[in-house]
Amino acid sequence: MIVPFDIIILIFLVITALISLRVRDLLGATMILGVYSFLICLLWAEMGAVDVAFTEAAVGAGVSTVFMIATIYHTRRHSSD
Amino acid sequence: MKWFGLIATVFTGILLLSAVPDFAAFGDPDSPANGGLGDHPSVSQYYITDTYTDTKVPNIVTAVLADYRGYDTMFETVVIFAAGIAIFAILRSFSGPVAPSHPTAIDTSVEGDHQRIIIGTTCRVIIPVIQLFALYVVAHGHHSPGGGFQGGVILGASFILVALAKDLSAALGRFSEKRYLALGSVGILIYAGFGLLCVALERNFLDYEILHRIMPATDPIMARSHSMLGVEVGVAFTVTAIMFAIYANLSSKGRLEQGF
Amino acid sequence: MILDLVAILLIAAGLVFFLGAAVGLVRFPDFYTRMHAAGKGDTLSSLLVVLGFALHELRHFDGSADVVVFLKLLAICAFIMLTSPTSTHALMDAGYEDGIEPVLGEDGENALTETRNRRLKD
Hints:
The structure holds three protein chains of three kinds.
Chain A: H1 3-22, H2 26-47, H3 50-74
Chain B: H1 2-18, H2 43-55, H3 60-68, H4 70-91, H5 110-115, H6 117-139, H7 148-165, H8 168-174, H9 177-200, H10 220-251
Helix pairs in contact in B: 3-4, 3-10, 4-9, 4-10, 6-7, 7-8, 7-10, 9-10
Chain C: H1 2-27, H2 31-57, H3 67-97, H4 111-121
Helix pairs in contact in C: 1-2, 2-3
């Protein structure tokens, strides 16, 4: 566990979370959520929790992004608020 | 709606933050997780020192998930199954073929095939490797990171890749609706079956040790290891089926025909 | 020792290409050129970095080298080589189908030189 590395990843996590809330284009927000998931995956791998990192990479960054894109495809692409 | 969301978020946030003072201090050696209570050894210390002698499984995470906390994992699987069933119940419509709602949808006519030959060829090369890797992750979950959830998600993602590279009907030809619903249920039945088998042999639910009586050539310790593998296979079945079911229903508005 | 040096050189070269890909992603004017920078730079740089890791695994010649890890990293190289260009192609194709126009200057002069001239003027 390398503390400066952790802090950098956590700062990026907060930034990506805020951006994904602010972006109007839902497809872009989904992509940024994928980046968020990969950052969490990186954080967990770096802390030694490889199993959880593996799950996060497969579920959070992989499949759930696909699900959200499939949903956006059938709804509206731009958020109203 | 916006204000309601804000109020709900703030309320949940206050509830969650109000639980923070109940946590042990960060790095507190006397907290239940680190130091144990009274004379009892701590939980994490027990797992680290005794897992291998208890179960002969080198990956402690898998042992905790599938054996010590097997009851939790069973209901996690049930939650995933319930999510899939809920999406099925909401989205699936049997109203027959309709005109595509999106004329701009990626068409799979001859012209479309011509353009997607690169993607199709690469997917044909890579999908068997992905599925082999998924099976490795499930079967090797005892010794390396992995297990039923991860392997199941990867296996489901390989079918989603078929649907993305060709179209949904190609993927459904390989993994039809009847099959994925059956496979999702069978996964949970395998998991619960292991538990009920232990009950039938007069032990607690999911107490795998006793299964050495019906498994040939195993002692109680190896019975736990092998039962974990069986349970993980059940989890992998359910997760594979439900991941693909969710994708198939989401991407085609439940008609399983016009999807991409 | 030499293997270590080669590994370090490969990783450093990979990082240089990563930097190039990132700069291209920010500075290029339109979707296609950006994807060009991202796709090409990303593929080559990840290949170089992973190859560097693989050689780094082989640095001990006394039999303690982990050959399995080396082979796994080579397999990752092969899959990067297969999937990364394909995904770039898929993205390009999707952009083309979606009707994204490339940025071109008035006399067919592409926008890169245009922006370069503009930046020189500023």
